[in-house]
């Protein structure tokens, strides 16, 4: 006796509805941007024209203007901002973790992390410049405040994934809550949290270069200055130096993260592999 085939799920109509919503949303967004077909077709030629005018890069000119020092000023801003974020976020991450903190404490702290993370570094710098004045200090504070939200969330998730057995052992020996966190949780999560700090530092290096465009220190101000005067060979040199420094930091940070997570040996599972290599650079 022939067996009837199971009925096929009716997904065709749902797929058409999803496709229609996607196309309608894209069309509505393009119309809102006032992008015409002529501008879209002419964009590749305009981009190629600008790229062509950047060569050969004027390295001697930008070197005499001290661009190398400004690139490293962006790195200093990112480093100080990352330290601020790491130091402030770590204790609050313990208070925000669901497995080690009561609800009445963790709920408001988690909402503070969300609120801080929702404000971009650029907006924070605009708010801080009237307080601190133009310069790298505004950029470092903006990056530090924004990093508190991001690093706090990441550290909180690492704490929630830790083994609770060492904490119970500390409590059985008469240890208080702080002792349980210090000796039971922190040794477990510190390698992962340190790798998050390094990954955040990579992100902050790129962010600090952008903050310079509004006067918050770094190489961004020099880039804007050269673009205003349409000195494209100098723009090409500034971009080349910035990209070289950022890629070098990314590669070094990925190497250090891998050493921290794996200890130089092979990774134990896919989660460790992904954590040790957040940027996709493998060594």
Short key terms for the protein model shown above:
283 residues, mainly alpha, 12 helices, 0% strand
Explain how this protein is built.
- The N and C termini lie far apart (60 Å).
- The protein has helices at residues 12-33, 37-53, 59-64, 67-96, 103-118, 121-132, 136-160, 165-172, 177-211, 220-228, 232-262, 270-276.
- Helix content is 77%, strand content 0%.
- The longest helix has 35 residues, at 177-211.
- α4 packs parallel to α7 (136-160) and α4 (67-96) runs antiparallel to α9 (177-211).
- The protein is mainly alpha-helical.
Rg, alpha carbons:
25 Å
Write the element-wise H/E pattern from the N-terminal end onward. HHHHHHHHHHHH
Mass-distribution shape = globular
Average per-residue pLDDT, rounded, comes to 84
Number of helices: 12
User: Which structural class should the secondary elements be placed in?
Assistant: mainly alpha
**What share of the residues lie within helices?**
over 70%
The main β sheet shows up as: none
Strand fraction equals under 5%
- Runs with pLDDT <50, length 5+? none
Span between termini: 60 Å
The total count of strands amounts to 0
Helix and strand topology:
Layout: H1 12-33, H2 37-53, H3 59-64, H4 67-96, H5 103-118, H6 121-132, H7 136-160, H8 165-172, H9 177-211, H10 220-228, H11 232-262, H12 270-276
Helix pairs in contact: 4-5, 4-7, 4-9, 4-11, 5-7, 6-7, 7-9, 8-9, 9-11, 10-11, 11-12
In short:
This protein has 283 residues and is an all-alpha fold. It has helices at 12-33, 37-53, 59-64, 67-96, 103-118, 121-132, 136-160, 165-172, 177-211, 220-228, 232-262, 270-276. It contains 12 helices and no strands.
């Amino acid at each position: 006796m022939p067996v009837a085939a199971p009925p096929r799920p009716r997904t065709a109509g749902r797929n058409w509805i999803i496709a229609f919503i996607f196309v309608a949303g894209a069309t509505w967004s393009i119309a809102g941007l006032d992008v015409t077909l002529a501008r879209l077709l002419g964009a590749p030629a305009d981009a190629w024209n600008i790229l062509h005018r950047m060569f050969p890069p004027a390295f001697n000119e930008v070197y005499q203007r001290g661009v190398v020092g400004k690139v490293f000023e962006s790195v200093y801003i990112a480093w100080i901002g990352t330290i601020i974020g790491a130091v402030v976020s770590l204790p609050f991450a313990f208070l925000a973790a669901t497995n080690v903190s009561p609800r009445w404490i963790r709920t408001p702290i988690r909402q503070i992390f969300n609120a801080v993370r929702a404000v971009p570094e650029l907006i924070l710098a605009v708010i801080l410049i009237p307080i601190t004045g133009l310069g790298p200090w505004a950029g470092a504070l903006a990056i530090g405040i924004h990093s508190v939200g991001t690093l706090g969330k990441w550290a909180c998730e690492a704490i929630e994934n830790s083994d609770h057995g060492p904490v119970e052992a500390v409590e059985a020996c008469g240890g208080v809550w702080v002792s349980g966190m210090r000796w039971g949780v922190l040794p477990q999560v510190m390698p992962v949290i340190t790798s998050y700090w390094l990954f955040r530092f990579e992100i902050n290096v790129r962010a600090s270069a952008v903050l310079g465009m509004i006067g918050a220190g770094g190489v961004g101000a020099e880039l804007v200055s050269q673009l205003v005067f349409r000195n494209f060979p100098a723009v090409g040199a500034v971009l080349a130096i910035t990209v070289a420094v950022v890629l070098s930091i990314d590669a070094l940070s990925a190497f250090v993260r891998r050493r921290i997570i794996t200890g130089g040996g092979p990774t134990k599972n896919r989660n460790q592999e992904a954590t040790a290599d957040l940027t996709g650079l493998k060594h």
